[in-house]
Amino acid sequence: MEKLIIGNHVSFKKDTQFKGSVLEELSYGGNAFMFYTGAPQNTARAEIIDSLTLEGMQIMKENGMDLRNVIVHAPYIINPANTANLDFSINFLRQEIDRVEKLGVTKLVLHPGSHVNLGEEVAIHNIINTLNACILSDTKVIVCLETMAGKGSEMGKTFKELKQIIDGVTYKEKVMVCLDTCHLNDAGYDLTKFDEILEEFDKVIGIEKIGCVHINDSKNDKGAHKDRHENFGLGTIGFDTLINIIYNDKLKDVPKILETPYIGETDDSKNRLFPPYKFEIEMIRNKKFNPNLLEDIRNYYK
Ligand code: FE
Ligand code: FE
Ligand code: ZN
Asked: How far does residue 75's CA lie from ligand 2's centre (Å)?
């Protein structure tokens, strides 16, 4: 049987780094993972410690995990669509690409950004310029542009926009797309017709360009342009639709990454938050909804 490539967002801590990320994923039972190299909302980044990277790789090997299924997410303060901080965006993205390559990771997910008040045409031009300033002939990492919900002036809410961006990039073979199920739903795509979505993607961009899939349920209705993630099976997309996407044969070689919210000790608790991934991955592997998901998570970690 084909091996399901499933995992989730993990932390990358200053002192345990890549090794810590691998061990965290193993505690959830996944075989893929994604992390920020530091806090997503700032640019403070620790020097990569090679010995921790190597130890992490060794643990991956012992557990049958493939480095191709590891993803780094660029910090969302980078806004390639707007010129206000374009020099900053370019500088930071260059450094981030170097860090990712030093880690041996092959894919970097990037939000196309928000145009704020520049308009979509200018935004696409800016994104292309940023990418061309960072993706060079010797760049090894593949930048995966994420599909966005279209909140505010977010770019990348349609396949057509992503295609326009890719068309302007010099080294197109180093750009792919990350599908985010919550974002697709909030952007207005009907995920119950996922085969049609893939057909459209194939026509507009090419199905071989899907480099990563973010698996999230949504707190909002289709087309709401909101972007609030919900736990697996508890949102407006629902269990069956998400399972159908995960097990789609055309995506079998693509890493699927959960970015679902942590669970509070009680419904209104923000004190202690527990990762949902171990139990969500279990539901996904069993293809069976767990009606006690939240209680099981709280009981396990308390
Ligand atoms: Fe993202
Ligand atoms: Fe995402
Ligand atoms: Zn999101």
From this structure: 12
pLDDT at residue 160, as a whole number: 98
**Structural domain includes residue 151:** yes
pLDDT digits (tens, 9 = 90+) for 30-80: 999 999 999 888 888 989 999 999 999 999 999 999 999 999 999 988 999
Nearest alpha-carbon partner for 154 in 110, 193, 192, 194: 110
Predicted local distance difference test score (pLDDT) of residue 269: 67
Cα of 261 from ligand 3 centre, angstroms: 10
Report yes or no on 271 lying in a domain: no
Residue ranges of the chain whose pLDDT lies below 50:
1
CATH number of the domain to which 133 belongs: 3.20.20.150
- Shortest-distance ligand to the CA of residue 181: 2
Ligand 1 centroid–CA 156 distance in Å is 11
Q: Given this model, what pLDDT does residue 286 score?
A: 98
Give the Å distance between the CA of 252 and the centre of ligand 2: 19
Q: Is residue 276 part of a domain?
A: no
In a domain, 213, yes or no: yes
CA 73 / ligand 1 centre spacing (Å): 7
- Tokens 């989730």 locate to 8
Strand partners, 280: none
Q: pTM of whole model > 0.90?
A: yes
